[in-house]
Amino acid sequence: MNAQQLSERLKRVAAYVPPNAILADIGSDHAYLPCYLALKGNIQKGIAGEVVKGPYESARKQVQQEGLSKSIEVRLANGLAAVELTDNVTAVTIAGMGGPLIASILDEGKEKLAGVERLILQPNVHAKAIREWGAANGWKITEEEILKENDKIYEILVLEPSSSPVSYTEQELLMGPFLIKAKSPVFIEKWDRETSQWKRILLSMESTEQTVEILAKKQELINKIQLTEEVLHGENT
């Protein structure tokens, strides 16, 4: 992978960045995503934020190699601390992290989201945390995508500010409102895998001491299995 040829996962993230956006890519690693978009002329300006010194240096080198130093600025900072309100950022991408970490980055940097028109988020796991954050903070999901690459399944969530309260059902929070409707083969594969794993865990818990904590965990797993199986078997309305 390089700035000219992204992985399929990052290509799909790039596809949701609006034309002429001022982009902040948080956790940018080698800055491949903003470089790719700048080389295609799809963004006005890019900020590549990286909290770790090594990837920060790699991103700086990449930007220089591509001749993009005037259009992409690489900043060493934690999360949205890489963004200043004077940057007038209109789109934020965060890809390749866990959902809870992405949600915490958004929460800790909420004030930096003023004026942002779109969040494009690609959690590796636990996308539910992002949906919960969005609903609690006035960001509605406008698009979702699920894809498989190198035997790993990824979700992409696109969020935009909402003028009215945002709420989702338990199933929608867990599995995604748009993904539930589409019910693609990759979606079915993901949730078949998840429910099989939960059932294995449940079975293994039968042989342990049935403490209050274990009983609570069992009930949580039973609820998740019920929610997912309703969707997979078409019982949801």
From TrEMBL:
The reply to whether Heme figures as a keyword in the UniProt entry is no
Q: Which PANTHER family match?
A: TRNA (ADENINE(22)-N(1))-METHYLTRANSFERASE (PTHR38451:SF1)
Pfam families in the record = TrmK
Under InterPro entries, the record lists: SAM-dependent_MTases_sf, TrmK
Species annotation? Planococcus halotolerans
State any single GO MF term.
tRNA (adenine(22)-N1)-methyltransferase activity
* Name of the protein this chain belongs to: tRNA (Adenine(22)-N(1))-methyltransferase TrmK
What keywords tag this UniProt record? Methyltransferase, Transferase
Judging by the UniProt lineage, the source's domain of life is Bacteria
What does UniProt list as this organism's lineage?
Bacteria, Bacillati, Bacillota, Bacilli, Bacillales
